[in-house]
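Escalated from tier 1: flavin-adenine dinucleotide holo job.
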Amino acid sequence: MSLFNTILVRTLPLAPRFVVWRVAKRYVAGPTLEDAVRTVRRLNELGAMATIDVLGEGVGEQETALGYVEEYNRVYDRIAEENLDSNVSIKPTMLMLGQDEMFCRDCLDILATKARELKNFLRIDMEDATTTDATLRTYWDLQEKHGCVGTVLQAYMRRTLDDISSLPEQGANIRLCKGIYIEARSIAWKGYETVRANFVIALEKLLRQGVYTAIATHDEYLVARATGLVESLGVPRDRYEFQMLLGVDEELRDILIEQGHRVRIYVPYGKDWYEYSIRRLRENPEIAGHVARAVLGLGGS
Ligand SMILES: Cc1cc2nc3c(=O)[nH]c(=O)nc-3n(C[C@H](O)[C@H](O)[C@H](O)COP(=O)(O)OP(=O)(O)OC[C@H]3O[C@@H](n4cnc5c(N)ncnc54)[C@H](O)[C@@H]3O)c2cc1C
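Tier 2 regenerated the structure:
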């Protein structure tokens, strides 16, 4: 990371909220559900599907968690009312996974029931390694019950190939991404090229196993490998999709849509946009370059 980017990442939290918003608005739909609805409608018009994420994680109180369950219920209702092409993604620590696995499972059960009733879908995001086992247990349980639930596997985790082998034979739906948390080397691959290599191996394994796979990356190399794999394995277009984050590499998004691939955009919204934006910057300082251009009005990226 350049010195300029380092300084920027360190000083941005000191900036007024409107300056941070100037940067964040590219990556976050806005503070309200209506902001997300507007963003998804626009994406649908461009030929992209969406997955709506309510910002928040690491919740410690049941009352707060239940408030998020209500909010997600509203999300499902608005998707149905507006006839949007969108499902939802949720971070399980928002529902207290880690503190109370059964409570979290019950909350997700309410949302999976809603998703099934509305013929929609629930994606359980994967967080740091302390949550992997509980997330997979909850996913298998709810998917067996409802049939409209998916989760995420991270290519940087050494266990991922084993986790793919353990997926249920029928009906698994997995988003494959590199992984964003900082994990110990004892459990996670660290090299950039190593993670890429494991991503390709994991993707091929998922596709050969017949798992519906959401290929979540903006890495052009991986996108090229993925398009090559789906073609050589003869995977039908309705058995995989690409996924990207809102505001990241829209050119690549449009190229994939143009080529006839299904593309879904992750659309976060919520009152916690400020904390989310600052944390994403700290976690991925490379974004600082994009931020710098946005803040300074230099265009591009
Ligand atoms: C739809 C979706 C869902 C995800 N869900 C999870 C999850 O549940 N659990 C989890 O651990 N991780 C999740 N991630 C994050 C993922 O693990 C990676 O950290 C992230 O996607 C960056 O990896 P990359 O494959 O794009 O490759 P990178 O090599 O990191 O990025 C490739 C290029 O894309 C651009 N880029 C990437 N990310 C950003 C960004 N945020 N802002 C601006 N430019 C960017 C950069 O130009 C970079 O050079 C998700 C990612 C996506 C796209």
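The pocket of flavin-adenine dinucleotide is lined by residues 125-126, 152, 154, 177-181, 216-219, 243-245, 248-249, 266, 284, 286-287, 290 (CB under 6 Å).
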